[in-house]
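Record type: monomer structure entry
Structure origin: computed from sequence
Chain ID: A
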Amino acid sequence: MPFDASRRVENNEEAINLSFFIFLICSPTIVERYTRTGTVEVYPAHNVSATDAIVTELSNAKSEILVQAYPLSVPIVKALIDAKKRGIKIEVVLDKSQGRDKYYPPNFVANAGIVTFIDDKHAIDPNKIIIVDRNILITGSCNFTNGDELLIIKGHKPLLDLYIQDFKGHEEHSKRYLRIVQGNNQ
């Protein structure tokens, strides 16, 4: 049966197979065999609700949010700032394409007190992930700006552990972002 990306699926073998395919082509070079656990929500391309789904997951965070991306939409930046105000631990790694202008996302999140890093080892990092409470992985070919394809994978610990390890590796070779106030570095 062909995969129908126009519907939301949970605990569906087709969706899990799709998530593994995306995982294999978009993730670190280490490939391991995993048992199929958890749930998968699929949001096809140009689905406006994809951004809403990300904001909902960020709004429901209880302890931690890890973000690795290059662009971030205003609703996602706002949801991160709101989560920080609720006391959620947040770490953001953005790539060097996010310029040094006071209106860029790194400045907004850093000014809100969110720990922000710039990964200058990669011009544009192909990994775009958000990890919520070490239990939810948000990924896909999405840019977190315009409702591109999106997967929300919940409760798949081996996959989450791999992505957390990859996030930490990027964070380690990244530089702490220093915010810009009125066009000056601070």
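Annotation 1: The longest strand covers residues 89-95.
Annotation 2: The first helix runs from residue 13 to 26.
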